[in-house]
Amino acid sequence: MSGKSTLHESDVSIVLCGQAGQGIQTVEFLLTRILKIAGFNVFATKEYMSRIRGGANSTQIRVASRKVSAPVNRIDVLVALNEGALQHVAARISRETMVLAEKSVVGDEADLGSSKFIDVPFTETASEIGDKVYANTVAVGTIAGLLGVKLGDISDYIKRFFSAKSSEIVQGNVKSAEAGHKIGRELAASGAIDLDIAADTQASDEILLNGAEAVGLGAIAGGCNFIASYPMSPSTGVLAFLAKHGSDFDIIAEQAEDEIAAINMALGAWYAGARAMVTTSGGGFALMTEGLSLAGMLETPVVIHLAQRPGPATGLPTRTEQGDLELALYAGHGEFPRIIFAPGTLQEAFYLTQKAFNLADKYQVPVFVLTDQYMIDSYYNVPSFNLSDVRVEKFIIKTAADYRRYELTKDGISPRGIPGFGEGLVAVDSDEHDEAGHITEDLDLRVKMVDKRLKRLEAMQAEAVHPELVGKSDYENLLICWGSTYHIAREALAELARDDTALLHCKQVYPLGPGVADHLKKARRTILIEGNATGQFGKLIRLHVGIDVHEQILKYSGLSFTVEEVVNRLETLLA
User: 3-class secondary structure for 493-529?
Assistant: First the structure.
C-alpha cells in the first residue's frame, strides 16, 4: 500500500491540518528543517484563518529528491490533528490519500474521502510521556520516521530548537519525537505506507528560508539601516526579521504609530543620508499614498515592500492575491516616476530587494518590491546567495556653497546632497520649487520641473530587468506570469511537456523590461496567469506595449494557484 502518487514518485505531498493555536506552524518549522538536514529538498506553504484560536489551518510540505518550489493540490499523506481537519481539506482528499489521525479525535470524519486511514495515537502517546501538548512533536517524529530520517538528526534538532526551555520540556519533546519516530518506522516496515524518497546530497548544504527572510536579507545586502513600519499581515515578517537582526547590522527598526508616520520617517531618514524602507500591505499602503507623492515631489528615494493580500478594505487578511499591482502603479496624486519589482523566487526576492536600494538612490524615486502572502510565508531550500557582485551603491554628493538641490540636468537627475556633508544648504519642499528648493509659482518653471522628474523614466527603462524566457525560443504559445506565480507556472509548463509552448516571467513590471514586446509579438497565442480578478498585468501590457493577451487564467479566491489547476486550464485552452 503506497502513500504517494504513482505519477510523482520523486516527491511526496504531506499536509498537516489542525486548528489555530494548535502548533501547526511549529510542526512545519521543525519538519522542514529536520528534513532539509537529512538531505531532502523541501517546499512548505500554509493557508490559515484570521483568528488566534479555532477554525482550521493547513500546511503543505513537499518532500522531494529534486527541487520543488510550488504547491500541488494532491495530498499523499494527511496528518489530521483535530475534529474538522478532514472536512477542511475534503476536496483535496483522494482514494490514494493516506490519512494519519486519531479516530477518537476526528470521529466520523475518519472515512471521509479515503480508504487508507491509519489510527495513530498522537495524543495518547504524548499523554503517556507527560503532556498531550507534545502530540505535535509525536507527529514530527512519525513523518520523519516514515521518510527514514535518522533518529539522531531528529533528536539533535529538537534539543536545539527547545534549548531555551526547561530541561523537562526539552526531554519531553525529545521523547515524543523518538516515540513518533518508532511509530513511523513500524508503519514503513509493515508496508502500510511507503515514502521511499531519495535524498539529495546537495540539499543539506543549502539554506532554507521563506519570502520574508529573503526580502529582509536583500534589504541588508542593499545597505538598509532604517526600517519604519506599522505591523500588518502578511508584511510584518520583514519588519520582525530586520528588528531581530538590527544589532548585528546596525539597523534601526521603528514600529511607528501608523503607516503615515512610517513612510514619513523613511523619507526623513533618506533626507538625512540613511537607506530606509517600509514594509506594509494594501490597506496600510493606502495610508502611505500621500507620503508617496511627497517622495515624488522631494525626489527622495524610498524602498517600499508591499506584500499583497485580498481586498478591498480588510478583505481576507491572512490570504493571498496579486491584486495591488495597479495600486502600486497609480498610487499618489500627480505624475512622477517609480520602479516596481515583482520577484518570483526567493533568489529574486533577495537580489531585487538589494537592487531596489541602489536604484532608489540612483534615480531618487520610490522603488516597490511587490510580493504576496503566498510568497512571504512559503519556504524552500536554495543555494547560498552569491555576494560577489552585490554592491551598496551610493550617489550622494558633497555639496558646494552654491549647491542647488533641484538643478535642471539633461538626464533629469539632480545631484543629491545631505545636510552637513559639504558647504551647501540642502533645501527641499513639498510645494513646487525652483532649483534651489524654494517655493515657486513660475508656471514655465513648473513645466521644466515636471519634465525633469519624468525624464528619468528613459534611463530607468533602459536599465530595467529583462524578463526570463523558460522553454524553447521558437514557441507558438507563450504563457506570461509575474511575481509569485513563477514556480507554479514553470512546473505546469514542465508537466505539459509541449515543445510549442514557453513561459515568459516578468520580474520587473514597471517600467517593463526590454524585450517584452518582442517576445509577445512572436507568439501565435498568449496566455496570462495571474492572481486577481481583472487581469491587471494584462491591462498594463496593453497600455505600455499595445498588445492584448489572448487568454487569461485568473484566480482570486484567496488561495494560490496549484500546479494541477494551471495544467488543467492550459490543457483546455491549448486543446
Answer: HHHHCCCCEEEEEECEEECECCCHHHHHHHCCEEEEE
